Structures are given as structure tokens and as C-alpha cells.
Amino acid sequence: MAVSSAFARGLLRHVYSTVTHGATLLDKLNSLNNEAVHALETGKVLQQTTGNGRSVTFQVNAQEGVTPTEMAETYSRLLDLYDDAVSAGNVTDATRYAYMMARLKPIRSFRNDFSNLIR
After folding, report:
1. Which residue of 74, 78, 82, 108 has the smallest Cβ count within 10 Å?
2. Mean pLDDT of 89-98
3. Does 71 fall in a domain?
4. Which domain holds residue 25?
5. 37-59: per-residue pLDDT in tens?
6. How far from chain centre, in Å, is Cα 112?
7. DSSP letter string, the chain
């Protein structure tokens, strides 16, 4: 499941609201991206198994909601948007944030278009 634009917008709002004095939006995004990637370094393993008198428990990614992989991809996407905002000439975090929010448009509907399909 891909993360929706609405989720990415909400995440960006949250991240921007937690930027403290002396830090930048880029600092916060990089920090959160590093944490998300670090959470994936151990891999995915089984929750629990028992056999032959031994028991082992591991962690499994959630079956519902946003997975750690999706969070890492979302932070990477936000960092790409941040780079686009800088390239577009935005010089403050406020203008970069506004640029990023404008680019994260929610998708309300879609349709398949096979008009150029060739047999």
C-alpha cells in the first residue's frame, strides 16, 4: 500500500510544527528519515514460534496502517520535495513548507485510460 498524499501532507504539517529554534525543516526531515531507515536495518522476522522445547519471539511489521518501509519512503519523498523547493528559489523554511504543501495534492479520483492501447 502506498502512502496517500493526505498522509504525507499531515506528516509534513507535524514535522514542520516540531521544528525548534535553531533547527531547520531539513534538519528535522533528515533526522526522521535516518530513524525510519535505521528501523528497517534489522529486517522483518516472525512474531513467535515454539518447537522442540524452544521458544523464539521476533517482531513483525504491522499488517494494517503504515509500515516502516512506507515511512522511510515518505520521508525520502519529503526530502526530495524539500530539494525541489530549494531549487525553486525558496529561501526560508516557511516558503519551502508552503511550496511542499502545494506540491502534495490529494488525489480524489482516478480513471483508467486505454485510448492509446494498441493490439
Report:
1. 108
2. 94
3. yes
4. 5-103
5. 877 665 554 556 666 667 666 56
6. 26
7. -PPPHHHHHHHHHHHHHTPPTT--HHHHHHHHHHHHHHHHTT----SEEEETTEEEE-----SSS--HHHHHHHHHHHHHHHHHHHHTT--SHHHHHHHHHHH-PPP-------TT---
